[in-house]
Amino acid sequence: MELSNKISASTIVKIAPLILLALFIPYLILCFYAHPIADDYTYNSASLFWRSQLEMYSFWNGRYVANFLVMCNPILFNSLFGYRFAATILLLLMPLSIYFLLSSVTEKALSSFQKIILAIVSTLLILSLMPSLAEGIYWYTGSVTYILGCIVALFYVGAIVAYYKKNFVINRVVHFSCCIILLFIAFGFNEVQALLLVVGHLFVWLNIKRDKKIRPLLIVLLIFCAVFAATIFFSPGNYFRTSYFSNNHRLFYSLFMSLQYMVRFFFAWISYSPLWIASILFAPISFKLTTHLTLFRELGRVKPFVFFFLLWGILFISIFLPCWSTGILGQYRTVNTACFFFIPS
Question: Distance between CA 175 and CA 269 in Å, rounded?
């Protein structure tokens, strides 16, 4: 009986990655059916490439990284293969970014196998709960503006954690420079993520009052956040863009409509049974991390209601901001951003 239990356990461990891979493969297959539409053709400008970047920043929006990428759309160069390959790369980068973050946070407390499993499970949960999978992954203009920004943000967080733990790339100066570059890139995708990054830095700063080593670092990062946020929010293009929407900037309407969407997605996501199962299976790993890692012990001291409001805050920023600025609700690509950060949180 004992031998059969050992065989069963070892067999489960071996087949688990295969099962997860089988669940992930259909998303990859769908990449071969992605087809350009709408805004994929809108950004084809007759001006020179860099002049077009300046024109978009001045007369449309401040998304300096997203603007660059949409002008590099493979379909503008008549490459349908490149268009579909971009979706494939995006899908592969999702678990890679989560794995990088887990490696930075957990170091050797978890095995590579455990981190791979966690990365794939997290990716599958995000993909299955994403309000608009088409806009999030298979529509180039939407995916590089929102989901790619989330991926870069995770790489940034992982790099900052590695810096704090003194796991430098080459040396301290080079590593910190890489962190600032990643932060600059992460801010340039869209306004929702920019605000989430600012609030995220403030949240960490307010909850790490006793750690005198990390607080100066956070102050420096907050200064960079303020500069990069100003670059995107106060761009001349944002002013011109909002002028196209006549029903925007209605506070009570935006709050009321945002609340409806927040309640809808919050309870839809937290009641998702695979997420419950994943959370239960993660519990013993969480206890192990709390035992071995100072970071998780520090998180354990934070009151549960703080994390509860953090989840609502992610939803509020992702839904209220576009509703306030455009007067239009139903832009699921911004809720995709909320989903990407909500599920791991």
Answer: 36
Helix/strand/coil for 263: helix
**Residue 62 DSSP one-character state:** -
Convert the pLDDT of each residue in 2-32 to its tens digit: 444 444 555 656 677 778 888 899 999 999 9
Output the pTM of the full model. Answer: 0.90
- Residue 139: which pLDDT band, with cuts at 50, 70 and 90? very high
154 within domain boundaries: yes
Answer whether residue 112 is part of any domain: yes
Question: What mean pLDDT is reported for the chain?
Answer: 86
CA dist., res. 203 & res. 197, Å (int) = 10
Q: For residues 47 and 147, is the Cβ–Cβ distance under 8 A?
A: no
Please name the residue that has the structure tokens 């519990």. Answer: 283
Closest by CA to 140, choosing from 25, 42, 29, is 42
Asked, for residue 157, whether it belongs to a domain, the answer is yes
CB 145 within 8 A of CB 186: no
Quote the number of domains for the chain: 1
- From the DSSP assignment, how many helices (H) and strands (E) are in the chain? 18, 0
On whether residue 325 sits in a domain, the answer given is no
Distance (Å, whole) CA 171 – CA 163:
10
Kindly report the backbone phi and psi dihedral angles of residue 107, in degrees, each rounded to the nearest multiple of 5, phi listed first.
Answer: 50, -120
Q: Which tokens hold the place of 253?
A: 């309407």
User: What tokens does 90 get?
Assistant: 């995006």
Structure tokens at 46: 């007759």
Structure tokens belonging to residue 176: 């910190």
Q: Which domain, by its residues, includes 235?
A: 2-245
